[in-house]
Amino acid sequence: MAESVSSTPEPFSGIASPKISNPITWWREHQATYPKLAQMALDLLSIPAMSAKCERVFSQAKLVVNDQRNRITNKTIDAIQCLKNWTSQGAIDWENEEDTPDVY
């Protein structure tokens, strides 16, 4: 018999899922435990949910890449856009040095 998609895998069946009100805060708190997964989660959570906001993000990116800055790499553009979004969402507190991300 095929297992349904909604069923809990055997190893996790006895673990209660925690109630998380702010996933960005949760990933920041658990970043040391899951560094790569946390980075991926924060990248994904920084994607705007609405198309109107998405249009604003593209407009902001257009301001980053202009005639004077036409040699910026995709990695740098991604980093700038993520930092802008994380800052606007309160995920990064620039006043607290411990929260300042390492720039790659």
Descriptive report:
The chain is an all-alpha fold and 104 residues long. It is built from four helices and no strands. α1 runs antiparallel to α2 (35-45). The longest helix is centred in the last third of the chain and has 15 residues, at 74-88. The chain is elongated and about 55 Å long. It starts with 22 loop residues before the first helix and ends in a 16-residue tail after the last helix.
Features of this protein?
104 residues, mainly alpha, 4 helices
Uncertain regions spanning at least 5 consecutive residues: none
Please state the CA-atom Rg, rounded to the nearest Å: 18 Å
Assign an overall shape: elongated
Summarize the biggest pleated sheet.
none
What is the average of the pLDDT values? Answer: 76
Task: List the domain count as a whole number.
Answer: 1
Number of helices: 4
Number of strands: 0
Run of helices and strands = HHHH
Strand fraction band? under 5%
Distance between the termini: 48 Å
Q: What would you call the structural class?
A: mainly alpha
Helix content: 40-55%
